[in-house]
Amino acid sequence: MLYARAKGRKVPIKTFIMDSKVVVGVGNIYANEALFKAGIRPDRLAGKISKVRLARLVECIKVVLAAAIKQGGTTLKDFVGGDGKPGYFKQELAVYGRANKPCAVCHAPLKRDSASSAQHCFLCELSNLIVLGIIIAGICY
């Protein structure tokens, strides 16, 4: 379904999945995290991503959102949930807010895309492209 909606779209994938008419519940933080897990550059045009890679992204979005819900959300400043407690997903963040810090997977410095303000790891994206030819879509580490 995401592939059909993305076909021909000339908007960055991060912007595309943050559109609530396309995917509900994916804001800036969760978009960064899901794209990292899927090994997709945030600035890649949505319409240029293969069906297999978008299927993997869908699975990674589900994984990220489920983990965030389990942790009570992501508290960056003073947010608290309905129970008055902060969300603890911030401790799980692999890329969001971590520009120039070491990647949790390969330890290369994370880069910040100036256009989308997304953080990403070039080495992990490259290795995911290579691995994608070997591993079936839908696997998120």
Molecular structure report:
With 141 residues, the chain is mainly alpha-helical. 38% of the residues lie in helices and 3% in strands. The chain contains five helices and two strands, in the order H-H-H-H-E-E-H. A hairpin with a 6-residue loop joins strand 1 (111-112) and strand 2 (119-120). Helix 3 (28-38) crosses helix 4. The longest helix is centred in the middle third of the chain and has 20 residues, at 51-70. The relative contact order is 0.17. Residues 132-141 have low confidence and may be disordered.
Please give a handful of descriptors for the protein shown:
single chain, 141 residues, mainly alpha, two-stranded antiparallel sheet, 5 helices, 38% helix, 3% strand
